[in-house]
Amino acid sequence: MNDANIYGLGEKLFTSLQKHGKKVAQFLADTDEVNTYSDLLTRSIRTAIKLKAQGIKRGDIVSTCTHNNKDNWIPFLASQFLGAISANFDENLSPLDTVHLLKLIKPRILFVSQNALEFMESCLCKANVNTQLVVFGDSQKYNTFSEYVEPCDEETTFYPVKVENENDIAVIIFSSGTTGLPKGICLHDKCLLNISKANLFKINNSEDKNVVVLFYSTLYWISCVFSLIKCVSNGYCYVICKKFDPANSWRLIEKYKVTAKFLPPYDAIEFLKSRPKNVDVSSLEIFYTGSCPVNKQLMEDLIVALPQTKILNCYGCSETGGVAASFDSTLVAEYKMQLLKPTSCGKICSDLKWKVVDTTSENILGPNEEGEIRVKADTIMKGYYKMDSSSAFDSDGYLRTGDLGYYDEDECFYIIGRIKEIFKYRGWHIVPTIIEDVLTSHPAVREAAVIGVPHEIDGNHPMGIVVLNNGYDNINTDTIVNFVNERVSESQKLRAGVAIVTNIPKTTTGKIKRRALEEIASYKPIIVSNNIKQ
């Protein structure tokens, strides 16, 4: 069937699974199993038939809450076959956020791992939501997933429902909740079908190669949904792992001949620190990083560690269905630009109209002027689930991404941070990532985050929150404060001091949870130093 006649994500995935049937779809790193596309298709069809028999239909919400495993893709694929909506949770999501989202979407059925079962039972009770639970694994209390993949008579004649309206909601992705409660981002079929054409994983002569992709995020995140759709559409193989292990990540590249890999900056740093001896990673052609601002040092370190690999910084957001900007790695001129401009996340995708806007005056800005990045296309989100979404778009219909950045004379884009993370000191805008880069350049500091501590006169005072490297437990925090203050502008000085913590809370894609940090600073006793005149 011609793709031009396909309007539904489910039909696209179904025909792709058929087309690539004999190819390896998944290497299961935790069990050494291998799944073909034919295996995935069969199990997805059986699950769809079972769900349909239970009354699941177009518009119903089917959810999962599980680590990556052999079967976590199946409910997603099956729900798309039926025209249902897929909305997925993460085992590491906070109880507060989980209860909030359960109340918001009220899933009909939720496939849950044994690890997360007790957690989801508690959250469903608090949310007072009646959702059927199905367990990946054994259970005496609930139906198990194994029942959903038992053979059935109808499987040989099954075909996905036809989607007549490409603007129907297919997937709900939850915003990362770095500065507030997560929202449900409604992505329609047209948006998700567009993923198969995106630049990510673009490798020269890929039709003649076995493209193997290594990602760690779960279906809660757009990065996983994006990579799943991209892989199935193109017949790529995906390495499935329960969790990220920086040292083992090198071994997986060697074992499975991984060709494309993504890690957010925080995990990329740990990855570089944990390289085993005598590991062959020559198969790796592309390494992507992104999801938050990437500094020059990390890009340079990756290039040194992986000289045979193209290192790419990319930019995306859930509201656009994934990647919004990147360099095309198959074009020599564009990759040269990435090397010359290591902190650039590339060029905005061709299907997106864009502008950079002054957040106060709403004036459109020119090259090298910092403002909010806004984009427009008929392939971006419809809006937020059960919420007024008018404030998400400006008067011209452009999506307010909330990301602060700029572009240069070559229309290469640079991301500075989130607008909501920015705070003011005496009228000056403070961008946390700028101070964080200075903090992490100190040899004692392993990780750093900066927040604004409210002040009755000045608005906010910058505070550094740090995790120390081994061997620096006895460092005087005045040393860190002075180190930063000697290197930043007057307005950026750490007037609220430095706090030492054992870990900085992040999302699984490496974004700092600013709201959680503010709670830590407000309610928990921490070691604080402020060696500065107010």
UniProtKB/TrEMBL annotation:
Top-level taxon of origin: Eukaryota
Name recorded for this polypeptide: Luciferin 4-monooxygenase
Keywords annotated in UniProt: Ligase, Peroxisome
Protein family according to the UniProt entry: Belongs to the ATP-dependent AMP-binding enzyme family.
Pfam entry (one): AMP-binding_C
Domain AMP-dependent synthetase/ligase: 16-385
Compartments (UniProt record): Peroxisome
Organism in which the protein naturally occurs: Psylliodes chrysocephalus
Alphabetized GO MF terms: CoA-ligase activity
InterPro entries: AMP-bd_C, AMP-bd_C_sf, AMP-binding_CS, AMP-dep_synth/lig_dom, ANL_N_sf
Domain AMP-binding enzyme C-terminal: 435-511
Gene3D superfamilies, per database record: 3.30.300.30, N-terminal domain of ligase-like (3.40.50.12780)
GO CC, any one term: peroxisome
